[in-house]
Amino acid sequence: MLNTSYVGRSLPTTEPVTISAESVSRFARALGLPEDAQIPPTYLISLTLPAADPLIADPDFGLDWSRVLHREQRFAYRRELRPGESVSCAATVESIKTVAGNDLLVLRTDVIGDEGVAAEVWTTLFVAGDPQ
Amino acid sequence: MTPQLEVGHTVFSTSYPVERADLARYADASGDRNPIHLDEAAAKAAGLPDVIAHGMYTMGLVSRAILEWLASAGVDARITEFSARFAKPVVVPVGGTAVAIEGKVRKVEGDTVEVAITAVSGGDKVLAPARATLTANRADA
Questions:
Q1: Domains present along chain A, CATH in parentheses
Q2: Hey, is the C-beta of B60 within 8 angstroms of any chain A C-beta?
Q3: How many domains does one find in chain B?
Q4: Are the beta carbons of A75 and B32 separated by less than 8 Å?
Q5: I need a surface site. Which of A25, A27, B28, B30 has the fewest CB within 10 A?
Q6: Nearest CB to B30: which of A46, A66, A71?
Q7: What is the mean pLDDT of chain B?
C-alpha cells in the first residue's frame, strides 16, 4: 500500500536537461514517425518518468515498481518544445485512490522550458496490492 | 478547419504491425526497459499471457495515426490535449501482432476538433477510447 500522506507532495524540480535532436529522432523512429518533424507528442514521457525516480527510491512511500501497470496517460501541451531547448520537470503526487486493495496513483508533472511551463503531464499508475 | 470535419465522421482508420523488435527499439528510445515488454519469461512471471507492448508505445502509434491523417488531409493543426486509458494489454507473441486504430470526430468547436480514437489488437479494445484535441495553427503564427 502506498503512503497516502504523500498526496499533495511535490518532488524537487529536476535539473534542466537539453532535448537532444538525436533522442527526438530515435523516439520518432521507434514509432515510425518522420524524423524531421516536431517532437513526437508522447516524447515527454521519457522526461517525466525519470522525474518520479525519487518516489521509487523512497522506502517510506512504498512504491514497488514490479507491481506497477500504466493505467492512464494525459498530456496538455501549452506550446511546442524544440530540440535544443532545456527542460526540467516538477512532479507532484496528485492523488492516491485505493480500490479493492490496489492503489491508483496519479502523478502530475509540469514540464518547464525556457519560457515557463510547456506541458502538463498526468500519469496514472495501477499499483497491485498484496495478494490475499 | 476544413469542412469535412463533422461530428461522428470517421477521419482515419489504419493498422500497424507490432513485433517484439519494435518494442525493443521503443524501450531504448524511451528509457522504459521494464522486462515485461522485452522478455517472455519475465512477462509470464508477472502473470501476463506473453510479452506486452508498452502502453506508451500504443499511445505513440495513436499519435502516429493522428499525425499521418493531418498530413494526408492537409490539415494544419497541432495536438494540444492527448489522453488514453490502457484498458487491455497489447499482447505481442513471437510472430508479432497488429494494432488497428480508428479516429472519429467527437466535437468541433471554434478552431479546435476533438477526436475519439479506438485501438484494437487481438480482438480486444486495448484503449478505453483515447482523445485528442487538435487546434488549428493560426496563419500568422
A1: 4-127 (3.10.129.10)
A2: yes
A3: 1
A4: no
A5: B28
A6: A46
A7: 94
Q: What CATH number corresponds to the domain at position B72? A: 3.10.129.10
ipTM of the complex: 0.94
Confidence of residue A130 (pLDDT cuts 50, 70, 90): confident
Q: Over A53-119, what HEC string results?
A: HHHHHCCCCCCCHHHEEEEEEEEEECCCCCCCCEEEEEEEEEEEEEECCEEEEEEEEEEEECCEEEE
Residue B105, domain extent: 10-18+55-136
Question: Does the residue B110 lie in any domain?
Answer: yes
pLDDT tens for each residue of A103-123: 999 999 999 998 999 999 999
Chain B residues in contact with A76 (beta carbon < 8 A): 80-81
**B 14-43 residues with CB below 8 A of A?**
16, 22, 25-26, 28-32, 34
Residue B16 pairs in a beta bridge with: B99
Of A26, A65, A77, the CB nearest to B29: A26
Which tens digit of pLDDT belongs to each residue from A47-76?
999 999 999 999 999 998 888 899 999 999
Residue B1 has pLDDT above 70, yes or no: no
B109 three-class SS: strand
